[in-house]
Design goal:
410 residues, alpha/beta, Rossmann fold, 2 domains
Length: 410
């Protein structure tokens, strides 16, 4: 049976281009397009497999109300809600093997909102004339595994150039759809335990040592850069049951969210594993640092101990009040954990840039975090351990691995 590619578009503004892409997909062996119309203006084109009226109804409204309304934000949200609901139903029914969107700014925002609601591993391609606009690419992708195809030219009129773009998009989707959807059952079928691990450049030595040892012992280790986006995605994937355990080497996104830093990973960071009860081993790499936008520096930030990671990123040291606030937030989250948690805290620095020779080394402030965490943790499943090591020491990586194996069910 041919695999369906869900084509999300606005037929009121992109009808000829959408139908060309549909035909281009249909001409590929093994796939066919299923058109979903997310138009918000009235039109009478009958070309959609899933009409705008049906999308509006699934979103809790009617197409007539959508057409009459001038509350653009409200009706956009309604259409996205309906499109997500219908797309998820199609996926559960096994009817789609990929998604493609076609549009300018509004169409791209709407289509990628739908894509991000669908699981990791489902092919997703957004053909957009605005993919390269500053700020929009990150908004389109968010935490989704979405491929952006910058059309360069406007998606208007079937010129040979645009046909080339659409033909290539059809070929890309046809190729990706043949791989099959990754899900928790398929991951489990490999027969190896799957470990999610947050990491960052300042704990790369520890991450590498942990990975190599665990892989040599038969585990799969899936790394996530703790820069605020991928570690947020890690939380979402943990919640979907893709992993057996978590090694959170770099949970600095918790404090960054409190301080409105650039590595903020959102309000639910450090919660998914505890909520579903899988084992966690947590270390504090980067937890004593923040990276606020320089345009938002408070007056005292200019006097802080700092480390310039590169020409764009500067880490500032947290003060005592801030680090205790971060400890309180860690405790609040970990006290909710339903599975075993080991918190491993090195006493000689929390990263490769944090040691006796570093300008940001401040063990007395780190001690405030440790003592506050010990004071606030009430969950008996959470064990806190300290080691007279630096986080980047090989011996500390060994402790991480040993504690993970100790809490993993056989």
């Amino acid at each position: 049976m041919d695999k369906c590619i869900l084509l999300i578009a606005t037929l009121d503004t992109k009808r000829p281009e959408s139908l060309y892409l549909k035909d281009a997909i249909d001409r590929r062996p093994g796939v066919r397009a299923l058109v979903m119309d997310i138009s918000m203006a009235a039109h009478d084109y009958p070309d959609a497999d899933i009409s705008a009226a049906r999308v509006a109804e699934a979103g809790g409204s009617t197409i007539e109300e959508i057409n009459r309304s001038r509350e653009r934000a409200k009706i956009t949200a309604t259409m996205i809600k309906g499109a997500v609901k219908l797309a998820e139903e199609l996926l559960v029914e096994g009817r789609i093997g990929g998604v493609v969107g076609l549009g300018g700014s509004t169409g791209s925002l709407m289509a990628t909102d739908v894509m991000r609601a669908l699981p990791f591993g489902l092919p997703k391609l957004m053909v957009s004339a605005t993919a390269a606009l500053p700020g929009l690419a990150t908004r389109y992708i968010g935490t989704g595994d979405i491929m952006l195809f910058h059309s360069v030219i406007e998606i208007a009129g079937l010129s040979p150039l645009l046909k080339s773009v659409l033909d290539r998009a059809a070929g890309a989707l046809a190729g990706m759809a043949g791989i099959g959807l990754l899900d928790a059952e398929r991951v489990r079928a490999e027969g190896r335990k799957s470990i999610a691990m947050s990491q960052f450049g300042i704990c790369e030595g520890c991450a590498s040592a942990v990975r190599h040892r665990l892989e040599s012992e038969g585990y799969d280790v899936i790394g996530f850069s703790a820069a605020g986006v991928c570690d947020k995605a890690m939380e979402e994937m943990i919640a979907k049951g893709l992993f057996d355990a978590v090694i959170d080497l770099a949970p600095g996104g918790v404090g960054e969210h409190l301080m409105e830093g650039m590595r903020s990973a959102g309000p639910e960071r450090l919660e998914a594993a505890g909520r579903i009860g899988i084992p966690q081993v947590i270390t504090p790499s980067g937890v004593n640092l923040m990276s606020p936008r320089k345009s938002r520096y408070k007056p005292d930030y200019h006097q802080r101990k700092k480390f310039d990671l590169d020409k764009l990123r500067t880490f500032l040291r947290l003060n005592g009040e801030e680090i205790e606030r971060v400890a309180d937030e860690f405790a609040r989250k970990l006290n909710q954990a339903k599975g075993p948690v080991r918190v491993l805290l090195p006493l000689k620095g929390w990263s490769s840039i944090d040691g006796p020779e570093s300008p940001i080394y401040e063990p007395e402030t780190d001690r405030l975090f440790i003592e506050r965490l010990k004071e606030k943790i009430t969950n008996p499943r959470v064990e806190i351990m300290t080691f007279d090591l630096n986080l980047e020491d090989k011996a500390f990586a060994d402790k991480v691995v040993e504690n993970l194996i100790d809490v993993l069910p056989v």
